[in-house]
Amino acid sequence: MRLHVGCAMWTHRSWQGRFTPHPLPPRDRLRAYAAHCNAVEGNTTFYATPTPATTHAWAAQTAADFRLVPKVPQLVTHERRLTDVAAPMRAFLDAVAPLGPRAHALWVQLPASFGPGDLAALARFLRRLPAAHRRAVEVRHPGFFADPRAARLLEQVLADADAEWVPFDTTTFFRTPPATAAERETWTRKPRLPRRTRALTAHPIVRYLGRDDPAATVEGWQPWLEVVAGWLAEGRSPTVFVHTPDNVDAPALARRFHEEVRARVPSLAPLPEPPPAAPSTLF
């Protein structure tokens, strides 16, 4: 039984000297992050497909059971809307191949304009993905949340492909007006959608957005503790990503989420203790 937790990235300026050593060359940053969390979102692949040499280096910095969820490139999902994408998908799949089992699932994040009328394109795309890869789909069109029939149709498409529906829970973030510069900037970019807690596969993935105030973030994730504990009791293997607008405390928050689930599921093994960010001194 394992719960994987992580953040939206594996490096952040504010983490240096606090969670990770400083200075730290780029080639070692994922390794340092992996001492704190056992999963990370692969957002970088959305903007540019990395070389196999780059992903080989990522694999070398992490254990085989580390989970990286690479996002399908925006060329495929947003620009071409899953149509006529054989060449970019071939390049993407070649790029993630060196990750081996660390590539936990291929994350298909769809634009808010991709609605119920586009499900045929999604079904065709998922059918063509190699069976060796898990599939995880994030939708943002309000129709999938407001119309029960549209939700059922999407679930059927996902079930046919053994794909997971990835919820992005922003309900805590939008509960009260923004209070920091990072929250104000995030306010205009993130989707406002209902919380969804239904898992379709044995490997559910959750994205949770809290606030820059850690106490508000912890208060907001309380409903997820029972959900995730329930999934573990059912034999599922969930992954939970904790975001905040500034992400300053994200690694500590992800670890705290794991601890709070473990308080409900004592058989869940604790995360290993990370090494100190900097060597101790006498002064």
Automatic annotation (TrEMBL):
Source organism per UniProt: Pilimelia terevasa
Task: Report what the protein is called.
Answer: DUF72 domain-containing protein
Q: Which Pfam families match?
A: DUF72
UniProt-listed Gene3D superfamilies: Protein of unknown function UPF0759 (3.20.20.410)
Under SUPFAM superfamilies, the record lists: TM1631-like (SSF117396)
PANTHER family linked: UNCHARACTERIZED PROTEIN YECE, UPF0759 PROTEIN YECE
